[in-house]
Write a structure and sequence with these properties.
The complex is a heterodimer of chains A (782) and B (343).
Chain A (H helix, E strand, L loop, with lengths): L1 E3 H7 L6 H11 L2 E8 L6 E12 L2 E10 L5 E6 L9 E5 L24 E2 L27 H5 L4 E7 L10 H12 L21 E3 L5 E10 L8 H9 L7 H13 L4 E4 L6 E5 L5 E3 L5 E3 L5 E5 L5 E4 L3 E2 L12 E8 L1 H11 L4 H6 L8 H13 L6 E2 L4 E4 L7 E6 H8 L5 H8 L5 E5 L2 E6 L9 H12 L19 H15 L3 E2 L5 E2 L3 H4 L20 E2 L4 H13 L6 E8 L11 E9 L3 H15 L4 E3 L7 E11 L2 E9 L1 H7 L5 E7 H4 L17 E11 L4 H12 L3 E10 L8 E11 L7 H17 L3 E2 L2
Parallel strand pairs in A: 9-12, 24-27
Antiparallel strand pairs in A: 1-8, 2-8, 3-4, 3-6, 4-5, 6-7, 10-18, 10-19, 10-20, 11-18, 12-15, 13-14, 15-16, 16-17, 21-23, 22-23, 25-26, 27-28, 28-32, 29-30, 30-31, 31-32, 33-35, 33-36, 34-35
Helix pairs in contact in A: 1-4, 2-4, 5-6, 6-9, 13-16, 19-20
Chain B lengths: L4 H21 L3 H12 L4 H8 L6 H40 L4 H7 L9 H15 L3 E2 L5 E3 H4 L28 E3 L4 H10 L4 E10 L11 E11 L4 H16 L4 E9 L2 E10 L5 E10 L1 H6 L8 E8 H9 L4 H4 L4 H4 L4
Parallel strand pairs in B: 1-4
Antiparallel strand pairs in B: 2-3, 4-5, 5-9, 6-7, 7-8, 8-9
Chain lengths: 782, 343
């Protein structure tokens, strides 16, 4: 919301220094997004009349203009605008003028023909944002004069405020000025009024049919209207505030809205004689001021002509095209109302039609501010039509939904518990009476009556916030609570950090792909899509599916980096997946995924081994259950009993081919809800066995389709208590070993717990191992 | 025993001389031992002299000769030991010279590097550490949330206008609108208040979602951290003091903070908090405020007994500022070339 320092200073006694005012606004919660000085005259710019124009055959986009700046010399100027013609009075920046943007006007010519200055648009002079053409001034404007002076443009400061939802009152200058006046301890004057309602009384019939949607509707007759241009200061202020000047009636209406946060509408009273406020009928339509035919629903509120029942305005949003003020309008019915905010917002969203009025109605306007706003409208209008009369007998209808001042009890004890200060009733009054709250001190606090322009304040805590704002946040001090709680990471969080460090220690980079997938991305990675959830309103259709696996994102990252010829691609992600659950929420869980381009199953297994070692966890390897999307003969499930907690191996080459990924990709996926939530007990120290140990090597021939782990398990059992360690140290295929089988060589370290190992004991172990291996389908190699 | 004493002594000296000469040129440990044995071994010259001592009758003379033989044997052993050390040293020197590598060549060829944690993860861990130091625990919660936890319990009943402050992504599930991708980590605050007995000092880092088109400063998926304190006798000054303590702990002693009035449905009074840099400029960091009594009540706490404050800000922003990342989309490109820049 833009506010002008000049208007604020008319409404209240405020400092002239813009920085001081900006600092105060920030400290009151009206965040100053930007602050611009406007209307600063540009020395060297003068009014000039275009004498004649001419097109140059070789310069299609520019026009040659000869101008008269009133000093008797005719100047030649090149001009790129198209909205001017002979006789128009426009601003001329003469040679040597330094424009507001810093550039200096020089003789820079075109086609070897000099330009003796530049004709200016409003934006170039910093008058408004209008950039569509030259600033054309009234005929008869004296020549050679400062256009700022001629136009009555004030030197001013525009603040662009980022207003919060809880301050509807600040959508008018009056609300901003009220807060500032309270802050500076100065007087709030309010708007200048030179008009009273007067006889003869002219009433406008008004009925409210939709009583829960319209709390108050008033319409006053203003006669003696002559539609024409606005005074320069009105047009200038509107321009500074980002609105275009239309005519004196529309401009007065807009300025009242901007000054007092009182949106209003001037109907041609000859066209509209009275009003009924009713809900639209489903399928009914009307044409709004912007010329659009709008189909309405039964939830849209309409302002209708009381006689015909036809809509003349979409309530709170925009007037109708037919009842607009025209050049021939002599009398207006000036409407001001209060509409229920939420439904206005819903209508705005339904019609995608936002207006300066709707922004205010959907936040809440002040039904008690109408009388002053009506007088202000006519006060402004009188400057250009002295004959304008505000007639008494304004038509007013009210309903039960009209906001009324409400009273809230504020306890000093509660203020103290929240803010750490203990203002009594009189002190509360000192702080918030200046912003319009009626404070009656009571024992232990105050009864605070909230004005209708502050609909955000409905309960005690709201008033406490106002007390805090006007006491000053900075003045509330800084302390640190004495916490009885010890800060720490949970075991799970600590273990997650260990996991991250193991992964980076393995040389792997963490990635964070989007958790949204395109439909089909999961099946493209060889995974099912039956259990997916989709987003109802995705940004783009390609990001509509909530992932149930990290794999598509990781493989996408592999492909991306491969396409950019990254030398080494080893990636991991720890993140949530969101498969459909049985309850309201998805069956969300935290997963780890690791992929390495060019990595094989052995690499994935070594990564898993490193994680197990670091976290003190483990799982069985089950190659009989090939996980979906993985290499059918080079992968396995990680299982705990019947539960699958992860997969390890390589990605299915068919999947990789479809994704355009070259070479093997190793993969490790682990469900972290299982692994991280375990907290293995600290290992307990054991005595080191100091008796001599002996190593024996035994090689067995085992069919390829029997897992080596079966044989190792058999050997381990057979060796019994004497076994210290067992390692598979060699695998051999080739001459001497049958086709479809391999030789597996194990080294076993044996030791007695209570003495020296005897040759007989070693022989006993060897025999037991041979027998056990045979049972497991392995034959001892001799 | 034949010959005079002087002859005997000459024999001893000659034996020593011969042995030391042989030892001094012996190329290895074995030839040193051969030379030693030739002088001192069972069949050696010195052994012969020694075995003849028994026939020397003059006791004084026997003693003198015996001493001379022993000294000769020691001299030979000394020479051998010295030579052995020399030979060993020379052998090492040769092997070491042959073992030479160009260390810079090895350095150039060593490809090993540690992996990288994502900048957001790094920032999250740093923030967690600071808050743990300030006495906070770390809470986590689901990223897909109920409308109740994401909005309603946070003092935003259905169709509350403030809901439009967040562009929300909804899960397509009946009843429509009942499940959302959380727009902030505030629902974790509700869960913590429901599940942990007060007093509560907790921060909630995590992934959040908004329906926003990606640009240099916005992503539809990003990360924020919120803090929640619920205790008895918690005032606005505690909020301001905690923000200040965090500012100094995270950014450095030279930094200060300020609070400006603002509005959030779930806190009142609410504030924006800014951090003042060394150069005196301010950066807007996040929002905060006293937990709204309705939020406490929605989470099952009596607002007349318990009070508290909450704050929150973006983690991505911290990472972006720290590493001078111009475009936030770079951080989520998952491009190894981008990641390699940061250790």
């Amino acid at each position: 919301m833009k506010v002008l320092l000049s208007i604020l200073r008319e409404l209240a006694d405020l400092p002239a220094d813009p920085d001081t005012v900006a600092t105060a606004m920030n400290s009151l919660g009206m965040a100053v997004e930007s602050m611009d000085t406007v209307g600063v005259p540009v020395p060297g710019v003068v009014t000039a009349r275009i004498v004649r124009t001419e097109k140059h055959p070789d310069a299609a986009k520019v026009t040659r203009c000869w101008v008269d700046a009133g000093d008797g010399t005719e100047r030649h100027v090149w001009c790129g605008a198209t909205n001017m013609g002979p006789g128009d009075v426009v601003p001329l920046a003469t040679l040597g003028t330094v424009m507001p943007d810093g550039r200096e006007i020089s003789r820079r010519g075109i086609l070897g023909i000099d330009s003796e200055g530049m004709l200016c648009s409003p934006v170039e002079l910093g008058i408004s944002d209008e950039a569509s053409g030259l600033l054309i001034m009234e005929q008869g404007t004296p020549l050679g004069r400062d256009p700022f002076e001629v136009l009555g443009i004030e030197h001013d400061t525009v603040f662009d405020l980022d207003l919060t939802r809880n301050r509807p009152d600040c959508w008018g200058h009056l609300g901003v000025a009220r807060d500032l006046a309270a802050h500076f301890g100065t007087a709030l004057r309010g708007p200048a009024l030179s008009v009273e309602p007067q006889e003869p009384s002219r009433t406008v019939p008004v009925t409210i049919s939709a009583t829960d949607r319209c709390g108050m509707f008033s319409a006053a007759v203003v006669s003696g209207v002559v539609v024409g241009p606005s005074p320069a200061w009105v047009a200038s202020r509107l321009a500074h505030l980002g609105m275009r000047s239309i005519n004196n009636v529309v401009d007065a209406s807009n300025l009242v809205m901007l000054e007092l946060n009182q949106p209003n509408h001037a109907y041609d009273h000859d066209v509209t004689r009275g009003f009924d406020i009713r809900l639209a009928r489903e399928g009914e339509s009307m044409r709004t001021l912007d010329g659009t035919e709008r189909r309405l629903t039964a939830d849209d509120l309409l302002i209708c002509d009381i006689a015909s029942g036809e809509p003349v305005g979409l309530a709170g949003i925009m007037g109708g095209l037919e009842s607009e003020v025209t050049a021939s309008t002599r009398e207006v019915a000036l409407e001001m109302a209060w509409f229920a905010p939420d439904p206005v917002r819903h209508s705005v969203n339904r019609h995608n039609l936002r207006s300066e009025a709707s922004v205010r109605f959907e936040r809440g306007v002040d039904p008690d501010g109408v009388a002053v706003a009506m007088r202000r409208f006519v006060t402004i209008l009188r400057e250009t039509c002295p004959s304008a009369v505000l007639h008494s007998g304004m038509g007013v209808a009210e309903s039960g939904s009209r906001p009324r001042p409400s009273t809230v009890r504020v306890r000093t004890s509660r203020v103290a518990r929240t803010l750490g200060i203990s203002p009594d009733g009189p002190r509360i009054a000192e702080l918030i009476a200046p912003i319009g709250f009626d404070v009656v001190p009571v024992e232990g606090g105050a009864d605070v009556t909230v004005p209708t322009f502050r609909p955000d304040c409905t309960e005690e805590i709201d008033i406490i916030e106002e007390i805090a704002r006007h006491h000053g946040y900075d003045a509330l001090g800084k302390s640190v609570p004495k916490s009885a709680v010890h800060g720490r990471l949970s075991t799970m969080q600590q273990r997650r950090r260990i996991l991250r460090r193991v992964l980076v220690g393995l040389g792997l980079d963490e990635v964070m792909p989007m958790p949204f997938l395109a439909p089909g991305a999961l099946s493209g990675a060889g995974l099912g899509e039956d259990d997916v959830l989709v987003i109802a309103n995705p940004l783009v259709a390609e990001e509509a599916v909530l992932r149930t696996s990290l794999r598509p994102g990781l493989l996408g990252s592999v492909r991306y980096n491969q396409s950019h010829r990254a030398p080494r691609i080893g990636l991991w992600e720890i993140g949530h997946v969101y498969p459909r659950g049985t309850g309201v929420l998805p069956d969300e869980s935290e997963q780890l995924g690791v992929v390495v381009a060019g990595g094989d199953a052995a690499l994935a297994l070594s990564q898993w081994a490193a994680l197990c070692d670091a976290l003190g966890v483990g799982a069985q390897l089950d190659q009989s259950r090939v996980p979906a999307g993985l290499h059918p003969t080079r992968s396995a499930s990680l299982t705990r009993g019947k539960k699958v907690i992860g997969v390890v191996g390589e990605v299915d080459p068919v999947v990789l081919d479809a994704l355009g990924i070259e070479g093997r990709v190793s993969i490790l996926e682990v469900d972290l809800t299982t692994v991280l939530n375990e907290d293995p007990k600290p290992a307990q120290a054991r005595d080191i066995n100091r008796f001599p140990s002996s190593d024996i090597d035994m090689a067995f021939v085992l069919a390829d389709d029997v897992p080596a782990q079966n044989l190792q398990r058999a050997l381990r059992q057979a060796a019994g208590k004497r076994l210290v360690s067992i390692d598979l140290f060699d695998t051999y295929r080739g001459p001497g070993v049958a086709e479809g089988a391999r030789s597996l060589a194990f080294r076993m370290r044996l030791q007695e717990s209570g003495g020296t190992l005897t040759d007989a004991a070693i022989a006993e172990v060897q025999e037991a191992c041979r027998v056990a291996a045979e049972k497991a389908g392995a034959r001892l190699r001799s | 025993m034949s010959g005079s004493i002087s002859e005997q002594q000459a024999v001893i000296e000659a034996a020593v001389k011969e042995a030391t000469a042989l030892i001094s040129v012996a190329p290895d440990a074995a030839s040193i031992r051969t030379a030693v044995n030739a002088a001192t071994g069972k069949k050696g010259t010195l052994a012969a002299v020694k075995s003849g001592l028994g026939r020397v009758t003059d006791l004084e003379l026997r003693k003198t000769l015996g001493q001379a033989v022993n000294e000769a044997i020691e001299a030979v052993e000394r020479a051998a030991t010295a030579r052995e050390q020399t030979v060993k040293r020379e052998a090492f020197a040769g092997a070491i010279a042959a073992d030479r590598v160009d260390m810079s060549e090895l350095a150039l060829r060593t490809g090993g590097r540690r992996g990288r944690m994502h900048l957001v993860t790094q920032a999250t861990e740093r923030l967690e550490d600071v808050f743990v130091g300030l006495g906070f625990r770390v809470a986590e919660g689901p990223e897909v949330e109920t409308d109740f936890h994401n909005f309603e319990a946070l003092n935003m009943p259905p169709s509350h206008p403030a809901r439009s402050m967040w562009d929300t992504l909804f899960v397509d599930q009946d009843p429509q609108g009942s499940v959302v991708l959380r727009t902030h980590t505030s629902p974790v605050q509700i869960r913590v208040m429901q599940e942990w007995p007060p007093p509560i000092y907790a921060v909630m880092p995590g992934r959040v979602f908004r329906k926003e088109t990606p640009d240099a400063t916005h992503m539809p998926v990003f990360y924020q951290i919120e803090g929640l304190v619920v205790d008895r006798n918690i005032t606005f000054a505690d909020l301001a003091g905690t923000i200040e303590a965090f500012t100094k702990a995270f950014f450095g002693e030279g930094f200060t903070s300020r609070l400006r009035p603002s509005y959030f449905p779930f806190t009142e009074p609410s504030a924006e908090f800014d951090i003042r840099r060394h150069d005196g400029s301010w950066i807007e960091l996040g929002g905060c405020g006293m937990v709204h009594p309705r939020v406490l009540a929605a989470a099952g706490l009596d607002p007349e007994e318990w009070g508290g404050f909450a704050f929150g800000f973006g983690i991505d922003r911290m990472a972006k500022e720290r590493h001078g990342v111009e475009d936030i989309r770079e951080m989520y490109s998952n491009d190894v070339r981008f990641m390699e820049q940061f250790s």
